[in-house]
Automatic annotation (TrEMBL):
Catalytic activity field: (S)-4-amino-5-oxopentanoate + tRNA(Glu) + NADP(+) = L-glutamyl-tRNA(Glu) + NADPH + H(+)
InterPro entries to which the protein is assigned, alphabetical: 4pyrrol_synth_GluRdtase, 4pyrrol_synth_GluRdtase_dimer, 4pyrrol_synth_GluRdtase_N, GluRdtase_CS, GluRdtase_dimer_dom_sf, GluRdtase_N_sf, NAD(P)-bd_dom_sf, Shikm_DH/Glu-tRNA_Rdtase
Residues that hold substrate according to the record: 52-55, 105, 110-112, 116
PANTHER family given in the database record: GLUTAMYL-TRNA REDUCTASE
Active site (record annotation): 53
Family named by the database record: Belongs to the glutamyl-tRNA reductase family.
Further details from the record: During catalysis, the active site Cys acts as a nucleophile attacking the alpha-carbonyl group of tRNA-bound glutamate with the formation of a thioester intermediate between enzyme and glutamate, and the concomitant release of tRNA(Glu). The thioester intermediate is finally reduced by direct hydride transfer from NADPH, to form the product GSA.
Species whose genome carries this gene: Halorussus aquaticus
Location of the Glutamyl-tRNA reductase N-terminal domain: 11-152
Domain Tetrapyrrole biosynthesis glutamyl-tRNA reductase dimerisation positions: 313-412
Keywords from the named record: NADP, Oxidoreductase, Porphyrin biosynthesis
Stated name of the protein: Glutamyl-tRNA reductase
Pfam families given in the database record: GlutR_dimer, GlutR_N, Shikimate_DH
Length: 455
């Protein structure tokens, strides 16, 4: 699709408006399949999807905002309408920047979201889902996220969801000499394992479907008694655990109520999406299960400390957002201007060829004469296109896309492929004759040569 056309439309289902059940209903296990599903819709030129433990977001590029929203309206049919936020072009672009900077995270300024956006970008890029609109937008978002964390204190003392889970456990129970269990060896599970290793837990278990995956985590955490187990050993490991953080990527429940039958007193923080722990587990005597919502209270103090930094990040986003919009405007204007000059160049070359043929019929032109005629043609093209070039750049700066789109239609880069100017040009200039108003600007000797006047 052309860089000069199309708008971004988006939807989001996230923790600020939706329940975890709603987010879970919107998410899909196969992100590549979601991208392809969007791209298969007629009129969708680009797509980008971001799924995390507490958000689902989808973006498309179409020829108009109404078309984009029509595509996305039916994309999450299992989610109540009050949980879905629709975003237009500018709102979508600004939101992407805010998400990458950590301003939309449950934990303000957390770092994990930036890595998740990078992963989503890589998948979309490899799937061929990105084009000139979303590639630039997501790249800009990643750039803003990096700047926010290196140039401000937005992540000073920041905690990820995984480490926030450990802070919650530490606030509610004595972790000294406790036995801890992390279920899942992915990114969040690894972060939780590191956070637990930094406490005074006596034993740290890491359970994973793949034993090798669990071993990779126990090998990298700084703990003297870190043990890897498989999910087949989960029951007996739960019996030994005092605290649990569960963060797998499984589609269904990994831990059922029956698994806690002999567990005794145990506190669990389930940060998986979909949730790992069956809701029925909370009814088991001695078992306390916290979900994502419980992490908000843990992070309140950290969030207060970073509000001042967030103000600086907001100002940074304002500037970068303006730069992003300006870059789109420049690209659109430059595309039209380039098309205009390419069209004019084809007409010029054709007219020069015909003029030289006429002149050669009256005797060969020498190189100096040819250079004079060619220079004249170049000068005429530059002078005639200077005003519309300026007007197009002004139109882009003023968001006058009506003028831009009209110019795109008039100066299609592919017009005149049959060697003749398009109809509107022929109506103005004819098929080969030089317009009188142009001829009047020519020097007398050149006009005489072109006209074939031997006098």
């Amino acid at each position: 699709m052309s860089a000069a056309t199309g708008v971004v439309s988006g939807i989001r289902i996230s923790h600020d408006r939706a329940s975890l059940d709603a987010v879970e209903a919107a998410c899909h296990p196969d992100e590549e399949a979601i991208l392809q599903r969007l791209l298969d819709v007629p009129g969708v030129h680009e797509a980008f999807v971001l799924q995390t433990c507490n958000r689902f977001e989808a973006y498309v590029v179409t020829d108009g905002d109404a078309a984009g929203q029509a595509v996305l309206d039916d994309f999450a049919p299992d989610v109540g309408g009050h949980s879905v936020v629709e975003m237009g072009h500018e709102q979508s672009l600004r939101h992407l920047l805010r998400v990458a900077a950590g301003l939309e995270s449950l934990v303000l300024g957390e770092d994990q979201i930036l890595g998740q956006i990078r992963d989503a970008y890589t998948l979309a890029h490899e799937s061929g889902a990105l084009g000139p609109m979303l590639d630039v937008a997501v790249t800009k978002a990643i750039h803003v996220g990096e700047r926010a964390r290196t140039e401000t204190d937005i992540n000073d003392g920041a905690v990820s969801v995984g480490s926030a889970a450990v802070k919650l456990l530490d606030a509610e129970t004595d972790l000294d000499d406790a036995t801890a269990l992390v279920v899942g060896a992915g990114e969040m599970g690894t972060i939780a394992a590191h956070a637990l290793a930094d406490t005074d837990v006596e034993t740290l278990y890491v359970a994973n479907r793949s034993f090798d995956g669990a071993v990779e985590v126990t090998d990298v955490v700084d703990h003297a008694d870190a043990r890897a187990v498989t999910l087949d050993e989960l029951g007996e490991t739960l019996d030994a655990a005092d605290v649990v953080v569960s963060a797998t990527g499984s589609e269904g429940h990994v831990i059922d109520a029956d698994d806690f039958h002999d567990a005794g007193e145990v506190r669990v923080v389930d940060i998986a999406q979909p949730r790992d722990v069956s809701p029925a587990a909370n009814a088991v005597n001695g078992v306390t299960v916290h979900g994502m919502a419980a992490l908000e209270s843990v992070t309140d103090e950290t969030e207060r400390r970073r509000r001042a930094a967030a103000e600086s990040v907001e100002a940074m986003i304002d500037r970068e957002f303006d730069h992003l919009l300006e870059s789109y405007k420049r690209k659109r204007a430059d595309e039209v201007i380039s098309a205009m000059y390419e069209s004019a160049e084809r007409v010029k070359e054709r007219q020069l060829s015909e003029a030289f043929s006429k002149l050669d019929a009256h005797g060969d032109l020498n190189d100096d004469q040819r250079e004079v005629v060619t220079s004249l043609a170049d000068a005429l093209v530059s002078q005639l296109l200077a005003p519309p070039t300026s007007s197009l750049r002004d139109a882009a700066a003023e968001d006058d896309w009506g003028t831009i789109n009209t110019a795109l239609q008039l100066f299609d880069p592919d017009f005149g492929e049959d060697g003749r100017p398009p109809e509107f040009v022929r109506e103005q200039f004819g098929d080969g004759d030089i317009p009188d108003e142009v001829a009047e600007q020519m020097p007398d000797d050149v006009r005489t040569m072109i006209a074939g006047d031997d006098d």
